[in-house]
């Protein structure tokens, strides 16, 4: 088996690979090509027949499949055991996972057992060199694990010079999902679960599962009206819903607005919420902290409505309307209705 490649852990539900995993394969393909290594993927569970046709177009060179009905749905010990033992064998230099409930549980278990580092919630991943300031030792082609730190006051680049694999988790929507080559074909390696996981690891059995799907879908909305702390109140937030209903948009919010109780957490956009890429993003009363900007900076057009002409979000906005949200939003609704007849 080839050593020191880049591997992505694939999350799977009912035979379908999660979007966050496909996003990581897209990024992983770029990083693997830059390093001159193979892009690998590993999937554990049941109903794995169609996984290769889902992931090979994203540039996967090697797909490790561990088929065992006991590995589905996800449980901590068995999935950790398989990855730990497989990684000891194939020694990947980089492992990427989604910053999901599963990735947040699995990543730390694997990295702590293998004594490697792990950077959570990365907003960017790059390859670059590093010189240790103390020893002067130079390291080539490390994974730059980039994320906001210290309450978002800086963007930190974290490196892991010695320990392997270099591990990072990334939230859904942060990376772009793009097919590499529809005709790309990789190799499938079927692994025997018994070789990697012991019966004792299956001590926990899931008897019943209830998954409630979110009714709010801001991730796929082409237009988003987002409100921040500057909207002022829960009542004022209703204006944003009125505007959204008028122009066919979905309502989002900054963390400050959610923390203040203006709206629910499912609408939160940013480093600790959802990452969105709408065609139009209308930011109402949002100051533009780095964590929020990380979640919406790839919007095609950004309109900022703010009574502070120096609000940080204005620097990335295409259009800035300086004024109070409660004055501006009703006018937007009025003129949109007037002009759309």
Question: Would you mind describing this structure in some detail?
Answer:
With 341 residues, this protein is an alpha/beta fold. The strands form four sheets. The protein has a seven-stranded parallel β-sheet with strand order 7-11-6-1-4-5-12. Strands 14-13-15-16-17 form a five-stranded parallel β-sheet. The chain has a three-stranded antiparallel β-sheet with strand order 8-9-10. The protein is built from nine helices and 17 strands. Helix 3 (76-90) packs across helix 4 (101-114).
Topology:
Elements: E1 6-9, E2 12-13, E3 16-17, H1 19-35, E4 39-45, H2 51-55, E5 62-67, H3 76-90, E6 94-98, H4 101-114, E7 118-122, E8 124-131, E9 138-149, E10 154-158, E11 166-170, E12 187-191, H5 193-196, E13 223-227, H6 234-247, E14 250-253, H7 255-259, E15 280-284, H8 290-294, E16 301-306, E17 319-322, H9 325-339
Parallel strand pairs: 1-4, 1-6, 4-5, 5-12, 6-11, 7-11, 13-14, 13-15, 15-16, 16-17
Antiparallel strand pairs: 2-3, 8-9, 9-10
Helix pairs in contact: 3-4, 6-9
């Amino acid at each position: 088996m080839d050593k020191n490649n880049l591997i992505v852990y694939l999350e799977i539900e009912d035979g379908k690979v999660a979007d966050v995993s496909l996003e990581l394969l897209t990024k992983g393909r770029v990083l693997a090509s830059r390093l001159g290594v193979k892009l690998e993927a590993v999937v554990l569970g049941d109903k794995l027949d169609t996984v290769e046709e889902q992931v090979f177009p994203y540039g996967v060179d090697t797909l490790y499949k561990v088929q065992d009905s006991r590995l589905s749905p996800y449980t901590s010990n068995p999935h950790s055991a398989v990855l730990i033992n497989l990684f000891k064998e194939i020694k990947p230099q980089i492992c990427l996972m989604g910053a999901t409930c599963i990735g947040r549980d699995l990543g730390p278990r694997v990295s702590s057992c293998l004594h490697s580092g792990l950077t959570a919630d990365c907003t960017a991943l790059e390859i670059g060199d590093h010189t240790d300031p103390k020893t002067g030792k130079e390291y080539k082609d490390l994974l730059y694990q980039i994320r906001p730190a210290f309450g978002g006051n800086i963007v930190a680049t974290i490196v892991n010079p010695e320990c392997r694999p270099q591990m990072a988790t990334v939230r859904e929507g942060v990376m772009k999902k793009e097919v590499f080559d529809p005709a790309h074909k990789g190799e499938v390696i079927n692994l025997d679960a018994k070789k990697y996981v012991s019966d004792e690891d299956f001590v926990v059995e899931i008897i019943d599962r209830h998954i409630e799907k979110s009714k709010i879908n801001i991730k796929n909305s082409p237009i988003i009206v987002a409100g921040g702390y500057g909207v002022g109140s829960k009542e004022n937030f209703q204006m944003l819903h009125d505007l959204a209903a008028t122009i066919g948009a979905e309502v989002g919010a900054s963390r400050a607005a959610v923390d203040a109780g203006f709206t629910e957490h499912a609408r939160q956009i940013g480093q600790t919420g959802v990452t969105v890429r709408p065609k139009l993003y209308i930011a109402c009363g949002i100051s533009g902290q780095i964590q929020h900007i990380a979640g919406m900076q790839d919007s095609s057009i950004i309109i900022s409505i703010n009574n502070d002409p120096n609000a940080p979000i204005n620097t990335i906005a295409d259009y800035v309307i300086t004024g109070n949200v409660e004055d501006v939003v009703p006018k937007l609704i009025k003129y949109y209705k007037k002009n759309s007849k």
